[in-house]
Design goal:
The structure is a single chain. It contains 6 helices and no strands. It is an all-alpha fold. It has one domain. The chain is elongated. The model has no long low-confidence stretch (mean pLDDT 85).
């Protein structure tokens, strides 16, 4: 049973680090898009990057509007319970610092406004820093003559 608790604690820490990475992707990604536009970085106009970026933030806003807790937060809490660890409070070094940066004790309405503002800034980035046009191959453009 102790081995299972250690695995659950390790997985909870890994999940917490991943969750923090998702937050960095959303917030840092927005900054990188605007900075990249100024510095002419081509990758900030990449379709996959931009749609993944807006998709993650849209998911966060929709789950907040629906009154749901982030599934990553729920999963981490379940793993911590299984490991016999508190969800908040006494924690491992990694858990303590990332949770301090990631989880704020604010009313849900504040988060909804914050998330919505970030989503609007991401939507604005599609106008201010448009996605690169799709590259078309010459074969698609070739007209077959009879």
């Amino acid at each position: 049973m102790i081995a299972e608790e250690k695995w659950a604690a390790l997985l909870a820490d890994v999940l917490l680090v991943f969750h923090f990475g998702v937050v960095l992707f959303v917030v840092g990604g927005l900054l990188v898009i605007y900075l990249g536009a100024l510095l002419r970085w081509r990758f900030v106009r990449n379709r996959l990057f931009r749609f993944a970026h807006i998709g993650v933030m849209a998911f966060v806003v929709f789950e907040t509007v629906a009154g749901r807790i982030c599934p990553l937060t729920e999963w981490e809490a379940a793993l911590r319970e299984r490991a016999g660890q508190p969800t908040y409070g006494d924690a491992t070094f990694v858990q303590y610092w990332i949770q301090r940066l990631l989880y704020w004790d604010w009313p849900p309405q504040v988060f909804l406004v914050l998330y919505s503002v970030i989503l609007l800034a991401i939507v604005a980035s599609f106008v201010l820093v448009p996605i690169a046009p799709r590259k078309t191959s010459g074969a698609r453009l070739r007209v077959v003559a009879d």
